[in-house]
């Protein structure tokens, strides 16, 4: 007795998912990029890493209010800290992080937010997010930058 399906049915059972899954991933990627506007952060500008102290806005790192509820956090990464090390914003604020590095390649990531980019000396990175839930958000360096890398963090406090 042979009640198995013909061989080509089994072949199609593999071929269809193995083409449909990548096709679905491409559709999801295109939707997230163009319909939802989720873009990988690009280069927001260039800066001389040896002249940061004389180059606005990095000569005065810190938080500035652009409009009610909208802030820009200008931050400088250096081994093994961020300047400033802590920023405070009211809940519901939209914060644009403008970051560069003074020395080596660092990372800049805030877990549970879309903020996640590399910080390269000579290059300005910029990304914006909104903080709706109050609490403490860690800013982590997630590019290995030397012996003190695991100690490199800063905080966003949403009040
Ligand atoms: Cu690091």
Report on the architecture of this protein:
This protein has 159 residues and is of the alpha+beta class. It contains 1 helix and 11 strands, in the order αβββββββββββ. It has one helix spanning 7-35, and strands spanning 43-46, 62-67, 70-78, 81-83, 86-89, 93-101, 106-109, 116-119, 123-131, 135-140, 153-158. Strands 1, 2, 3, 4, 6 and 9 form a 6-stranded mixed beta sheet that branches. A hairpin with a 6-residue loop joins strand 7 (106-109) and strand 8 (116-119). It is elongated, with a radius of gyration of 22 Å. The protein starts with 6 loop residues before the first helix and ends with a strand. 21% of the residues are buried. The model has no long low-confidence stretch (mean pLDDT 92). The protein binds copper (II) ion (CU).
Task: List key phrases describing it.
159 residues; alpha+beta; six-stranded mixed β-sheet; three-stranded mixed β-sheet; 40% strand; binds copper (II) ion
Strand content: 35-45%
Shape: elongated
Query: Bound compounds, please?
Result: copper (II) ion
Helix and strand string, N-terminal first? HEEEEEEEEEEE
Query: Structural class, please?
Result: alpha+beta
Could you give the distance between the termini? 73 Å
> How much helix, percentage-wise, in residues?
10-25%
Low-confidence stretches: none
Tell me the number of helical segments per DSSP (H or I, 4 or more residues long).
1
Mean pLDDT: 92
The main sheet comes to:
6 strands, mixed
The strand count comes to 11
Radius of gyration: 22 Å
What is the fold's blueprint, element by element?
Elements: H1 7-35, E1 43-46, E2 62-67, E3 70-78, E4 81-83, E5 86-89, E6 93-101, E7 106-109, E8 116-119, E9 123-131, E10 135-140, E11 153-158
Parallel strand pairs: 3-6, 5-11
Antiparallel strand pairs: 1-9, 2-3, 3-4, 6-9, 7-8, 10-11
The protein binds copper (II) ion.
């Amino acid at each position: 007795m042979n009640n198995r399906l013909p061989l080509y049915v089994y072949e199609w059972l593999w071929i269809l998912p193995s083409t449909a899954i990548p096709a679905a991933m491409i559709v999801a990627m295109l939707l997230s990029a163009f319909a939802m506007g989720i873009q990988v952060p690009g280069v927001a500008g260039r800066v001389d890493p040896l002249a940061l102290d004389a180059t606005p806005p990095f000569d005065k790192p810190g938080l500035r209010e652009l409009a009610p509820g909208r802030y820009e956090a200008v931050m400088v990464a250096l081994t093994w800290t961020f300047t400033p090390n802590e920023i405070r914003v009211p809940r519901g604020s939209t914060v644009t992080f403008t970051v560069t590095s003074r020395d080596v390649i660092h990372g800049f990531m805030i877990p549970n937010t879309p903020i996640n980019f590399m910080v390269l000396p000579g290059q300005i990175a910029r990304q914006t997010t909104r903080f709706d839930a109050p609490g403490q958000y860690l800013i982590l360096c997630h590019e290995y930058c030397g012996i003190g890398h695991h100690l490199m963090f800063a905080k966003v406090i949403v009040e």
